[in-house]
Amino acid sequence: MATSYDLLIKQRSVIEFLGDEGCSAANIHARMKTVHGEMCISDCAVRKWVRIFKGEDPRETILRDRNPSGRPLAASVTAHREKVDCMIRANRRVKQKEIANAVGSSKE
Known about the structure:
Layout: H1 4-21, H2 25-36, H3 43-54, H4 78-90, H5 96-103
Helix pairs in contact: 1-2, 1-3, 2-3
């Protein structure tokens, strides 16, 4: 079963394809509404994506959303995992703050 995010990606692809064929934003939305019904994105969103795909919008043309900027919430470094495992095995009552200080990350 497709998620709503997968459906959004598919709809953006359809908008790009039909826009390249020369269909108007209103026509694209009407065609998508007959296929997707209530799950169809709004007319305003269709118009926005048509502008983006035509290059009339200064943003980069992308189908998927960008990853959020900033530091990731989870550390995925293998060395950190091994160090944390060793600390926990040595002392099962080790505090989260102590682990964070040892590996140099926040306690969140």
